[in-house]
Design goal:
alpha/beta, Rossmann fold, five-stranded parallel beta sheet, 8 helices
């Protein structure tokens, strides 16, 4: 079995076209990130599987650097603390692993970036629900039709294709564009 590379690239381009159509929203989210940090707040990021890896990647770009030397900013991937994830999952259920951390770490005015290719991850939905009820703005990086998350996040950035891999490729591009836009605001 071999891969049809031109077909895969065409599907990738289709997903990337969705990113291009979200340029204004990406700039707006970068401005929100800037405002959160200017007010002394934090950015929290969550997701499952590949989206968990993207959450970690994005938090690292903010606390470290993306492409320019600048101060690090308070960004937390809620996917990284194995002890917290397993204790919360064991004691409260896996659907609470992100919301419980938000309850412990966040404050009103912070920002949550929720990543889900399906838009239906129960633990991500619970985190967004917590955010909505506690003065934390939420941004969803979503796929397909946005799922249930599209209805509850404050800002939905949805890649309207069905292939999970293509959605993930578009999500990482959006995260990099957010970093780039945020850093350009620091020039």
């Amino acid at each position: 079995m071999s891969i049809d590379v031109p077909l895969a690239i065409a599907a990738h381009r289709e997903a990337i076209d969705f990113v291009a159509g979200l340029a204004d929203e990406i700039r707006d989210v970068a401005a929100q990130i800037d405002a959160v940090f200017a007010a002394g707040g934090s950015v929290f990021v969550c997701g499952n599987g590949g989206s968990a890896a993207d959450a970690q990647h994005f938090a690292a770009e903010l606390t470290g650097r993306y492409s320019m030397d600048r101060p690090g900013y308070p960004a937390v991937a809620l996917t990284t603390d194995a002890s917290a994830l397993t204790s919360i999952g064991n004691d409260y259920g896996f659907e609470q692993v992100f919301a419980r951390q938000l309850q412990a770490l966040s404050r009103p005015g912070d920002l949550l970036i929720a990543i889900s290719t399906s838009g239906n991850s129960a633990n991500v939905l619970r985190a967004v629900d917590y955010a909505r009820n506690h003065g934390i703005h939420s941004v969803g990086l979503l796929g397909r039709d946005g799922g249930m998350l599209a209805e509850v996040v404050d800002t939905a950035l949805t890649i309207g294709v069905n292939a999970t891999a293509r959605i993930q490729e578009a999500h990482i591009l959006m995260l990099h564009l957010l970093c780039e836009a945020f850093e350009k605001r620091k020039d």
